[in-house]
């Protein structure tokens, strides 16, 4: 159980980056649809748990060292090649978003130019990638409980101090710009692009665990944990929609309105989650192209990091609203393939003949 929880923490840590923890992603894909977005959050939790379970389980069975083995197993040779390319490309895209998010936090919270924040995140991310994968998983999972505690505090504060009625919350929320045409598509897109981005690290995390049951529950617990965070952040923003409307980082703004110290703690937590995702994405992207055991791996990481740093100047909100929805639509291919694979495994198990009892004369 302990190992499953650690894997779940790492699962959450990889997915929860700048856009998620800051509230910007949740605002665009859930809260902008008002109270319907809460139902979307429940659907997302179930999908995260089911799909995460399948990826960590397959990773464990295949002893995966990158997402390639798992993707080709799920999608087959030809579709697998397309999905492999999509995932690899967007791993880089998400890493860019994380660097932009770090810059935004440094500028908004610490009054430090964004370029220095992005550069700081790049350097500590690359230095971390000199560790082995098990140490990386441990580091990523350690930060998750801290974020969960802060989100609980902020959500509680928002609910008990709101001046808005339920109808006002709904109206104000629906006036915000979203990244999907409706709440159902929003929930599906959100799971899809996060899964496409996180599939690589989920497969690798599963591959580090020989016990398939531990890997399976790690995926389930991680998915449910993500769902809880989505709901808490959505409720907090709905309750304070008159305050957070138009903010780059709504949850950080809420923390600052509660107390300056809490604002600093939330900024640190956000940087920690950005760091988690940046580490996961850069490692997975680099390991797919250059084996992590290669002597060229570290040099390749520095080159990729430098390119990502340059692209990050496009801007945080623009990157979130452009990269993520596009990735979500393409990620549907992966979701369909995972569901088909699950039915195949379930069907194969159901067709296995039951053992015949031997009766001694």
Automatic annotation (TrEMBL):
Q: Can you say what this protein is called?
A: Membrane protein YkvI
The organism encoding this protein is: Kurthia populi
The record's listing under PANTHER family reads: CONSERVED MEMBRANE PROTEIN, MEMBRANE PROTEIN
For this protein, the record's InterPro entries field holds: YkvI-like (IPR038728)
Sorted UniProt keywords: Membrane, Transmembrane, Transmembrane helix
Tell me if NAD is a UniProt keyword of this record: no
* TM segment ranges: 33-57, 78-102, 114-131, 138-160, 180-205, 217-241, 261-287, 299-320, 326-343
């Amino acid at each position: 159980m302990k190992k499953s929880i650690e894997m779940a923490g790492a699962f959450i840590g990889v997915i929860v980056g700048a856009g998620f923890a800051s509230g910007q992603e949740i605002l665009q894909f859930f809260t902008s649809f008002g109270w319907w977005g809460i139902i979307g959050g429940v659907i997302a939790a179930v999908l995260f748990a089911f799909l995460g379970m399948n990826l960590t389980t397959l990773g464990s069975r295949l002893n995966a060292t990158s997402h390639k083995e798992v993707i080709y197993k799920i999608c087959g040779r030809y579709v697998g090649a397309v999905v492999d390319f999509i995932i690899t490309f967007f791993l880089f895209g998400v890493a860019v978003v994380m660097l932009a998010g770090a810059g935004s936090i440094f500028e908004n919270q610490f009054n430090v130019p964004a370029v220095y924040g992005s550069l700081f995140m790049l350097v500590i991310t690359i230095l971390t990638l000199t560790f082995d994968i098990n140490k990386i998983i441990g580091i990523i999972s350690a930060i998750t409980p801290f974020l969960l505690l802060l989100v609980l505090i902020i959500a509680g504060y928002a609910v008990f101090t709101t001046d808005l009625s339920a109808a006002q919350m709904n109206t104000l929320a629906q006036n915000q710009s979203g990244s999907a045409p409706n709440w159902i598509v929003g929930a599906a897109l959100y799971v899809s692009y996060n899964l496409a981005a996180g599939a690589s690290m989920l497969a690798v995390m599963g591959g580090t665990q020989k016990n398939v049951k531990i890997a399976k529950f790690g995926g389930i617990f991680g998915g449910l944990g993500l769902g809880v965070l989505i709901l808490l952040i959505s409720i907090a923003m709905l309750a304070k929609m008159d305050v957070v409307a138009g903010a780059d980082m709504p949850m950080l703004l809420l923390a600052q309105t509660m107390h300056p110290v809490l604002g600093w703690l939330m900024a640190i937590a956000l940087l920690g989650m950005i760091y988690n995702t940046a580490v996961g994405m850069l490692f997975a992207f680099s390991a797919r192209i250059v084996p992590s055991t290669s002597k060229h791996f570290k040099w390749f990481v520095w080159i990729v990091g430098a390119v990502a740093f340059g692209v990050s100047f496009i801007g945080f909100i623009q990157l979130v609203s452009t990269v993520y929805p596009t990735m979500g639509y393409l990620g549907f291919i992966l979701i369909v393939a995972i569901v088909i694979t699950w039915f195949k495994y379930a069907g194969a198990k159901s067709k296995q003949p039951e053992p015949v009892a031997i009766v001694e004369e």
